[in-house]
Design goal:
- The structure is a single chain.
- This protein is an alpha/beta fold.
- The model has no long low-confidence stretch (mean pLDDT 96).
- The chain is globular.
- It has two domains: 264 residues, ATPase, nucleotide binding domain (Nucleotidyltransferase, domain 5), CATH 3.30.420; 184 residues, 2-Layer Sandwich (Nucleotidyltransferase, domain 5).
- Helices cover 37% and strands 22% of the residues.
- The chain is built from 18 helices and 20 strands.
- The strands form six sheets. It has a six-stranded mixed sheet with strand order 3-2-1-6-14-13, with helices on both faces. A six-stranded mixed sheet has the order 17-18-16-15-19-20, with helices on both faces.
- Keywords: ATP-binding, Disulfide bond, Kinase, Nucleotide-binding, Rhamnose metabolism, Transferase.
Length: 464
């Protein structure tokens, strides 16, 4: 059986095919890239949007290419970033392009919400790290603006649910993506209906929750014919990309808990647990309880990650001085600067110039200002490593025993300098890879739904 993982990231999307074979009693996953395409944020008027129709068309192109390759597709599954959503009206139509989480509409909404909400009590139910990008605050911003979209909406669908809806016609919400919203009860793993009612949000917006490893529905007839794939199951996986990536961590059976950093635009640092941690200590340390595959909780902290380097590289390219990662990281390795900046400070959230923001911060706080691109990169990477060490110290204080090993997965695991700095900062061994963790986890969770794989533990033993 061949499975198609449709993996949307903040800058690009891709369709990846995966097939599990068995040889000599061992299972092996073989993958091939079928299609890659651009994703971009589009500023239109006062807001920043995702171009959903274009992304949907790019996805269908990938499905057509899979059919043209002669692949016998048994399942399709979508994973994306968290928190963002689209609204559907009573006719089943999309009400406008989904707004990007980096839009300014949520500024100040968290403070307004907690003006009459007890933070400790709220966390004891939701267990979510408070970030103004969260779905809760996006919805509150719509209410405050008296948005006509919210008034006519029939259903709210998170980004991967939205893609799956237009593939199948079935409206449901996958558990791991719902857990990014700050509107889910972390213990019952259902909607926090008390919160929803208190905010006077209509219950009908919130769709039934389905768990990873279940079938969402069948490919719509028109899309089945258009793509040439025929009738194929569309499967719920860890549709929050972090959940799929964590399920692909190549942890050994004796690693408990499994510790990871999913490294990309964001760095998601945490451990895999059986139950949420909803204590005041966890809230103050800014950890979140997100859904995982196989009934697990991914207890983690969201940390700004390689967003810094992505912005710097784009900025230097626009200035006509495009950099290559290999040479830039080599220069960073040689830089002697010791400056460390707080990577999650508001100054770095979405500045007009990341380079200027770093230099200005250093100057204002009596820190050595980086004077070269290599030094700037070194400051970013050692600041990330310092943040990882700080987060791990908080994490260890909440666990029965400190973590003994850290897995760095995702695209950022290729950054050998960051891996080395992280190992030095944490004082534990760091194991890098797989790079394609999200696609691997997506595909193997589809295999779990189809019975080709029996458990997450078996998934982690499959050779890549």
């Amino acid at each position: 059986m061949t499975y198609l993982a449709i993996d949307f990231g903040g800058g690009s999307g891709r369709v990846v095919a995966g097939t599990i074979t068995t040889e000599g009693g061992k299972k092996q996953l073989t993958m091939q890239l079928v299609h890659r395409f651009q994703n971009r944020q589009v500023r239109l008027g006062e807001h920043v949007y995702w171009d959903f129709p274009a992304l949907f068309e790019d996805m269908k192109t990938g499905l057509r290419k899979a059919a043209q390759l002669g692949l016998k597709v048994s399942g399709i599954a979508v994973d994306t970033w968290g928190v963002d959503f689209g609204l559907i009206d009573r006719n089943g139509d999309l009400i406008g392009n989904p707004v990007c989480y980096r839009d300014a509409r949520t500024q100040g909404m968290a403070d307004e919400f907690f003006a009459d909400t007890d933070r400790t009590a709220h966390y004891s139910v939701n267990g979510t790290q408070v970030m103004e990008i969260n779905t809760l605050f996006q919805l509150l911003s719509l209410k405050k603006a008296n948005s006509p979209q919210l008034q006519i909406a029939d259903k709210l669908l998170f980004t991967p649910d939205l893609f799956s809806y237009f593939l199948t016609g079935e409206a449901n919400t996958e558990y791991t993506i719902a857990s990014t919203s700050e509107m889910l009860n972390a213990t019952t793993r259902d909607w926090d209906w008390e919160l929803i009612d208190r905010l006077q949000l209509p219950r009908h917006l919130f769709c039934p929750i389905v768990m990873p490893g279940t079938v969402r529905g069948k490919l719509r007839k028109d899309i089945a014919e258009e793509t040439g794939l025929g009738e194929v199951d569309v499967i719920a996986v860890g549709s929050h990309d972090t959940a799929s990536a964590v399920a692909a961590v190549p942890a050994k059976d004796d690693e408990s808990p499994v510790a990871f950093i999913s490294s990309g635009t964001w760095s998601l640092l945490g451990v895999e647990l059986d139950k949420p941690i909803l204590t005041e200590e966890a809230r103050r340390a800014e950890f979140t309880n997100e859904g995982g595959i196989g009934g697990k909780i991914t207890f983690l902290q969201n940390i700004t990650g390689l967003w810094f380097l992505q912005r710097l590289m784009a900025e230097w390219k626009e200035e006509g001085d495009e950099q290559q990662y290999d040479t830039l990281l080599a220069a960073a390795a040689e830089a002697k600067i010791k400056t460390v900046i707080p990577v999650d400070a508001k100054e770095f959230q979405n500045p007009k110039s990341m380079q200027a923001a770093i230099r200005d911060y250093c100057a204002e706080h009596a820190l050595e200002v980086p004077q070269s691109k290599g030094a700037t990169t070194r400051v970013v990477l050692q600041s990330l490593a310092a943040k990882y060490a700080e987060a791990t110290a908080h994490l260890n204080a909440m666990l029965p025993t400190p973590i003994q090993k850290l897995h760095i997965i995702g695209g950022g695991s290729q950054n050998k300098l960051l891996n080395r700095l992280t190992e030095e900062a944490l004082g534990v061994p760091v194991e890098a890879g797989p790079v394609e963790a999200t696609a691997i986890g997506n595909i193997l969770c589809q295999a779990l739904a189809k019975g080709e794989v029996k458990s997450v533990a078996e998934m982690r033993k499959i050779e890549i």
